[in-house]
Write a structure and sequence with these properties.
fatty acid binding; Chalcone_isomerase; Chalcone-flavonone isomerase family protein; 7-stranded antiparallel beta sheet; Chalcone_isomerase_3-sand; alpha+beta; Chalcone isomerase; 27% helix; Chalcone_isomerase_sf
């Protein structure tokens, strides 16, 4: 019962830890370079080394950071996020995706109250391996340089290829509370919401209203392109269907910024993804 007095803050799970990562201004808007078609990436010369790798055979084993470990169960290969002990498949086939996605990095979300850290969820970033062929401009950068390079993460977001965030809850949360926390993180990143944005947020909200999210529940946020995202929720393994489609460039970019912008809600996830990218691009 000693934690009761913190209950109004406990599930504000998508805000950065303020004493380490300052909040964005409510008027902050996401500023990402706009690439409308695959041809817009022509200025990014493709590395011959990456061209020689068939996307489905890219090896992601070496991408795990020091905060994760790798192992196999049967024919499936996994990476364990060590802070939460949650396991992430190294390759996933998700509804709506044209090819299997590969795990780039893992991390966790922790809320700190006084001096007590409460882990809320683990997360893993998956990408279409072909995205890697658009990033040769940053070849040779260190993990720390990549982590601070907003242009690189913007290019990943803007690429018209799939990327997906898998969230694994490590404690029970009711759906309304989960959505309220997510909305509190997304909305300040949209400077002026349009009717399209409001409709997208309403659709997003409806997925979680009245829906209990038990420990172990999986939530997949899959960006098909910069303005279209699929949402899948499952309490029983990898989902086979899509719960909703979100079509709003402002909403989808704001959500990506929540996790991979300048003040990510899970610094460990962005760090792990940067380590993975540094390994690929070295």
């Amino acid at each position: 019962m000693a934690m009761a007095k913190y209950s109004t803050q406990t599930w504000n799970i998508f805000h950065p830890i303020t004493h380490h990562f300052p909040h964005k201004s409510p008027n902050h808007s996401v500023s990402l370079p706009l690439y409308k078609t695959p041809s817009d990436f022509s200025s990014l010369s493709t590395s011959p080394h990456l061209n020689n790798l068939a996307p489905t055979h890219l090896c992601f084993k070496a991408f795990a950071s020091s905060s994760s470990s790798s192992f196999s169960v049967g024919s499936a290969e996994y990476t364990e996020e060590t802070a939460t002990k949650e396991k992430f498949q190294k390759s996933l086939s998700l509804p709506g995706c044209s090819t299997s996605l590969s795990l780039l990095g893992t991390g966790y979300r922790e809320k700190v109250f006084a001096i007590i850290g409460v882990k809320v969820y683990a997360a893993g970033l998956y990408v279409n391996p072909s995205i890697l062929n658009t990033l040769s401009t940053w070849k040779g950068q260190s993990a720390s340089e990549i982590q601070d390079n907003s242009a690189l993460f913007s290019s990943i977001f803007q690429a018209p290829l799939e990327k997906s965030l898998q969230i694994v809850l490590v404690r029970d949360v009711d759906g309304k509370t989960f959505w309220d926390a997510l909305d509190d993180a997304i909305s300040p990143r949209i400077k002026t919401a349009t009717p399209i944005d409001e409709s997208a947020l309403s659709t997003f909200r409806s997925i979680f209203q009245g829906r209990p999210l038990k420990k172990g529940s999986l939530i997949f946020l899959t960006w098909l392109d910069p303005s279209k995202m699929l949402v899948c929720v499952s309490s029983d393994g990898i989902p086979s269907s899509v719960d909703a489609t979100i079509e709003s460039a402002n909403v989808t970019s704001a959500l990506f910024d929540v996790f991979f912008g300048d003040t990510p809600v899970s610094p460990s996830l962005k760090t792990s993804a940067a380590n993975g990218l540094a390994t690929i691009l070295k």
